[in-house]
Amino acid sequence: MTERKGFGWRFDNSYTRLPEPFYAETNPEEAPSPELVVFNQPLAESLGLDAELLESEEGAEIFAGNMIPEGAEPIAQAYAGHQFGHFTMLGDGRAVLLGEQMTPEGKRFDIQLKGSGKTPFSRGGDGRAGIGPMLREFIISEAMHALGIPTTRSLAVAVTGAPVYREETLEGAVLTRVAASHIRVGTFQYAAAREVVEDLRTLADYTIERHYPEVANDPNPHVSLLQKVMERQASLIAKWQLVGFIHGVMNTDNMTISGETIDYGPCAFMDTYDPATVFSSIDRQGRYAYGNQPGIAEWNLSRFAETLLPLFDEDQEKAVHIAQQTLSGYAGKYYGHWLKGMRSKLGLFNEEEDDEKLVKDLLRIMKDNQADYTNTFRALTMGDLNALPMCKTPEFNDWHDRWKARLESQPESEAAVKQLMQENNPSIIPRNHRVEEALDAAIEGDFGVMAELLNALENPYAYSADQEKYVVPSAATTPYRTFCGT
Predict the structure, then answer these.
(1) Which end of the chain is flanked by fewer CB atoms within 10 Å, N or C?
(2) Which of 253, 263, 283, 372 is catalytic?
(3) Which helix (H) or strand (E) holds 419?
(4) Is residue 128 within 8 Å of residue 162, measured between CB atoms?
(5) What does the pLDDT average to over 421-443?
(6) Is the whole model's pTM more than 0.90, yes or no?
């Protein structure tokens, strides 16, 4: 495996300066015949990379793991996690962190290969990934970015030329993922489980320096770290709820300290509004249903707080009290973000006492009428009530009259209201049937369908004519199911 110079790589790998138990040095497994099938040129350029050079055959060698860029220090990261409520020691079982790319603006981003083969944490797995799940993460993560939701990004997908064996034989592929970091709640759980307080402190201080340097000189910076992570997650989950995104597997190893959405396995966007909606084939109890996501985030944050107790105070009782006091603010912060977002979706500039009831009444009517979540707000934005089957119900008409009266009580013009709504109600989301359509075509070698979908998803608030065909919900009558891909 050779090192390749050039391409614009500027690595500064701070994570490898942490104590050795936090990672294991490892190289990607060699791919027999790599080929680059999807490449994110704008992202590459923003990272300071030579996009034209990376689209060459040598670029495919890098993205498949055959060539290690100059300055990279490949590692697999160690972490733990509560998976569906059960604690397990884990680690990067099918991912290799090449290193941290420094952009021309001085920002730091992890460059990770996902699906690149076995690591010391593979636990009997093959470490490989099929092309479908890797393309799926590319589509959904880039759509989330366009929606304005903090997320890991996708730089490239390369096929390897090696088969992957699951329920059926799949074409192997590697996704190149970009993140502010891959530090997770599970990373702290791993550190806490080892019961080496100084290593835990080192990790916490490193995380503060990397993500929240503004709290480094606070009286208790580790309490401030919890506060910051809580605030980021409250904002993030509210954004998920506002667009109908369902993560599907909110284990603690899938919650980042940076506040980015990570690990697009069995995720999907809700069509028909129902808080009980679950898409994941493995979530049989509905633990991670759409309506449960805010509460699960709070549960995960509680597990994060538990890891930090030794750093809060030497007195265990005092440390627990500090954690509880801090976490008590989560519900209010989440709800504040969510209600503010819902006001914007309804064109409300100011706050009035009855707004909460107005919002909840609409959601109840939507649920009762099995209304499409995205298209309901799209129709309200466009003033096209004929697009809503529930518009003929007396209950909706009563709600609509109340909403119109509420809009008239504020000084902003109709044009300003429409603009606010359009900025907060996407015209297009990655509809599940459209994503599957793109994946099916790509697996057969036709990437044009995916390219067209990605192009439409680039500006979800544009309300442009070329997005119209992606607005129509699926006509399927059977429930949609998603799978992890492992």
Answers:
(1) N
(2) 253
(3) helix 414-424
(4) yes
(5) 96
(6) yes
